[in-house]
Amino acid sequence: MTTGDVDLAAEVIAAARERSATLATAESLTGGLVCAALVDVPGASDVVRGGVVAYAVDVKVSALGVPADLVERLGTVHESVARAMAEGARQRLGATHAVATTGVAGPDPSEGQPVGTVYIAVAGPEGTVDRAYGFDGDRPAIRRAACQAALVLLRDTVADTA
Q: Where are the domains of the chain?
């Protein structure tokens, strides 16, 4: 984890606390990095409900409620899957906001998607937003970049909540 992750995570926690929001994570390619960054912040237990690392397809379906037919049609590396993961984590973990990550960290392409393809979504009380990214670098660099992007999107979404 980098200093930037810790600073971003602290901003997320502060924004959530100011708005009486709670947070959850649903992670695939980041493998828990986002949740780890959040809980590294002192006082995170006030707002972090929990996280699900759903690396396998069947875990995305069973633990997060991602529709199996969605994965069959689109694969796991898709913005619609990121959205479903975030919405499932929000509902199942009872949080006001949930962030989800899915993508290809490498070293090889997956599901016809190039290395560095990442989708991040945040589900909140005002709906779900998603973003697509194309990161460069090796597997650890892509995972770190995805973690930072997830924290930024989560911070901005929570901060924009009325």
A: 3-159
Please list, in sequence order, all residues whose beta carbon lies within 8 angstroms of the beta carbon of residue 84, skipping any fewer than 6 positions away.
Answer: 64, 65, 66, 67, 70
pLDDT one-digit tens code per residue, 119-134:
999 999 999 999 999 9
Structural tokens at position 133: 């990214």
Q: How far is Cα 117 from Cα 153, in angstroms, rounded to an integer? A: 16
Element (DSSP H or E) covering residue 149: helix 139-159
Reading the block at residue 38, the tokens are 């959040």
The answer for 32, left when phi > 0, alpha when psi is -120 to 50, beta otherwise, is: left
Q: What is this structure's pTM? A: 0.96
CATH of domain 3-159: 3.90.950.20
Least confident of 4-13, 26-35, 97-106: 4-13
pLDDT: which is higher, 6 or 83 = 83
Q: What gap in Å lies between CA 88 and CA 85, rounded to an integer?
A: 5
